[in-house]
């Protein structure tokens, strides 16, 4: 698993890479089952990390957003809020999220690299595409990837 450079959740944020992150304090917000590796990576690549963990598949409430905002406001600058890609999707449309924090929100894309040769990768990809094509519940995903 490879962590790519953080990307802005909203278009009004400055570009952020790991060279710039090393000078920042990070508020890590996670709603995933095992955030340890993600948080550890942020600790290694930043000035400091405050982690607010939520349960996997968490639906962020107004009080959750207030806690995130309060914690972020109390942090020393320079500071950024960093999310998993999964949490960024959920928070991007959250109606309780204030505009003032949006320019500081980033997510970290994750790239998966299979430990096999190219032929095995092709076989794996074909199996996934075949499964999605043959299971109507996921046909929308297949059709959007064409």
Order of helices and strands: EEHEHEHEHHEEHH
Looking at the structure, the CATH topology of the largest domain is Rossmann fold
Low-confidence stretches: none
Rg on CA atoms, Å: 18 Å
What would CATH call the architecture of the largest domain?
Answer: 3-Layer(aba) Sandwich
Largest sheet: 5 strands, mixed
Task: Give a topology summary.
Elements: E1 2-3, E2 7-8, H1 18-21, E3 25-30, H2 36-45, E4 48-53, H3 62-74, E5 79-84, H4 85-92, H5 99-102, E6 105-108, E7 110-111, H6 118-134, H7 139-145
Parallel strand pairs: 3-4, 3-5, 5-6
Antiparallel strand pairs: 1-7, 2-6
Helix pairs in contact: 6-7
Task: Explain what this protein looks like in three dimensions.
With 146 residues, the chain is an alpha/beta fold. The chain is globular and about 50 Å long. The two termini are 25 Å apart. The chain contains seven helices and seven strands. It folds into two domains: 2-111, Rossmann fold (3-Layer(aba) Sandwich); 116-146. The strands form two sheets. A five-stranded mixed β-sheet has the order 2-6-5-3-4, sandwiched between helices. Strands 1-7 form a two-stranded antiparallel sheet. The mean pLDDT is 90.
């Amino acid at each position: 698993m490879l962590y790519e450079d953080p990307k802005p959740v909203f278009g009004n944020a400055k570009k952020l890479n790991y060279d710039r992150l090393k000078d920042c304090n990070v508020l890590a917000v996670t709603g995933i089952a095992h955030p340890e590796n993600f948080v550890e990576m942020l600790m290694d690549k930043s000035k400091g990390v405050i982690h607010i963990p939520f349960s996997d598949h968490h639906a962020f409430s107004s009080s959750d957003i207030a806690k995130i905002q309060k914690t972020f406001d109390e942090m020393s600058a320079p500071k950024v809020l960093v999310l998993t890609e999964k949490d960024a999707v959920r928070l991007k449309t959250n109606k309780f999220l204030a505009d003032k924090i949006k320019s500081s929100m980033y997510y970290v894309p994750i790239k998966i690299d299979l430990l096999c040769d190219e032929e095995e990768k092709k076989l794996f990809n074909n199996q996934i595409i075949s499964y999605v094509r043959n299971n109507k519940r996921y046909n929308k995903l297949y059709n959007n990837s064409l």
